[in-house]
């Protein structure tokens, strides 16, 4: 199943939830990633922060009508990560996914992580947060 995850900056959870009706087109900044899941974001959080998260919202259910706030540990890790660390995490994640029978290239994943890092830095500079939803 192909999934699209939209990441976007919003002032607060109330304004973030407005994307359920109109999409993130009105967000200050956003990025769209194909072939990812909400669980992938959790995996990146674990790899970048070194913490094993136990997110009660991550399960096998359909998340298409839910907006998630980026976890604080991921937000902070992305904000301060060097490109070399993002490339390392991309490589580790690709290896983990390969063990599960999935095929991804590390380069595009590192680019996605770099884009998310830029969003996290931009949001922090505005006193805002990064949110995401499955389309």
Description:
The chain has six helices and four strands; from the N terminus they run βααβαβαααβ. With 135 residues, the chain is α+β, with helices and mostly antiparallel strands. The chain has a single domain, classed as Hypothetical protein yfbM fold (3-Layer(aba) Sandwich), CATH 3.40.1760. It has a four-stranded antiparallel β-sheet with strand order 2-1-4-3. Helix 3 packs across helix 5 and helix 4 (72-80) packs across helix 6 (106-126). The longest helix is centred in the C-terminal third of the chain and has 21 residues, at 106-126. It is globular, with a radius of gyration of 14 Å.
For the structure shown, list the relevant keywords.
135 residues, alpha+beta, four-stranded antiparallel beta sheet
In short:
The model is unreliable at 56-60 (pLDDT under 50).
The termini sit apart by: 12 Å
- Strand percentage, roughly? 15-25%
**Uncertain ranges:** 56-60
Continuous helix count: 6
Which fold does the CATH topology refer to? Hypothetical protein yfbM fold
Number of domains: 1
Shape call:
globular
- Provide the spatial order of strands within the biggest beta sheet: 2-1-4-3
The CATH class name reads: Alpha Beta
In percent, how helical is the residue content? 40-55%
The succession of helices and strands, N to C, reads EHHEHEHHHE
What is the average of the pLDDT values?
A: 85
CATH architecture: 3-Layer(aba) Sandwich
| Main sheet specs | 4 strands, antiparallel
Q: Helices, strands, pairings?
A:
Blueprint (H helix, E strand, L loop, with lengths): L3 E7 L2 H5 L1 H4 L7 E5 L3 H12 L17 E3 L2 H9 L2 H17 L6 H21 L2 E6 L1
Antiparallel strand pairs: 1-2, 1-4, 3-4
